[in-house]
Description:
Layout (H helix, E strand, L loop, with lengths): L1 E2 L3 E5 L27 H6 L2 E2 L2 E2 L1 E6 L1 H4 L2 H18 L10 E4 L10 E5 L5 H15 L2 H5 L2 H28 L2 E2 L8 E3 L5 E3 L6 E2 L25 H4 L7 H16 L9 H10 L12 H10 L10 H16 L12 H9 L1
Antiparallel strand pairs: 1-2, 2-5, 3-4, 5-7, 6-7, 8-11, 9-10
Amino acid sequence: MGEGGYCGVHEIASFQLSEDTPPDKEPSPDSDYDEIQTRGYMSKYCIRDGDARYALKKLKNPIRSDAKLFFSGTVDLALEIRLLAVIQHSHIVKMRAVSRGDFFKDHAFIIMDRLYDTMEVRVWKWKQNHLRFMSICGRCNGGREKYKDLMAEKVQIAVDLANALKYLHEKKIVYRDIKPENMGFDVRDNIKLFDFGLAKELPPAKKNEDRTYNLTGFTGSVIFMAPEVALKKPYNLSADVYSFGILLWLMMKAEFPYKNLNMNLILKLVVGQGRRPPCDRTWSEGISNLMKKCWSEDLFERPSFEDITSILLSEYCQMTASEYNDDDLDLSRRSLNLKLDM
């Protein structure tokens, strides 16, 4: 299905359970999709409507044949498992199982819920819809209203992502790899954050006096990388906020920023001179101002994800003529839709 630096991801067509696997109770008819699943349940229901329901992440064969890369990749995989084991959020992919035995001797793997479209694919679809809705023919067939609905949908997805990152930051976890390739949509079309290979816990004892941490620099994708990370300076949770601001621009524009710049020019103009992608005049002032605050050069002036979720939800409700209160901030897209439709 895809691959990163160390690992590849494969969809699971079937499970073959060992004979000593204990029998599982049959799930009740009204059992929820998000229930804690057993091996027997996963084996029996691994295909849903013809599609694989689970995915397996493991080290790529070339990595396994290189001792140094194998060690680094195995450590990264183990750290990802450690994080996913304590994370439970409706917009973060669920880890369903891990391999047993010694990670350095056996084939280590993670089994997770399978996702479908990545954000990268969805952005391409949004771009096609932009062109179709705003063409002459599109405008004559209700394209303007469809365009407004599409923009509201994007803001709604941004609320969900901000909520997931708010949850991580409350646990003092910095994600460090925000980019469209690390976000996918599940069978219900809910956005999910995945790939925690670069995520890092930030122990309070390691904090510097200025509230930053001495962390590995130049980590993540250069397009979304905060300037302090690119310059290998101390940084903190707000590095994710910068990345989210760039991602929000990408979502609203439905194209990648800096597409005419190579890495050297990005480092020179964006990191060195503070250039940022231009905001579209058709966007609301609230959305544009939020982006500018997120990608502030000063990491201490960037908003928290609690503020970001509140601002985005307010923008969404203005776009859809809906009302909300503070209790809505922790709702998923599906729950939010149900509540607003009541």
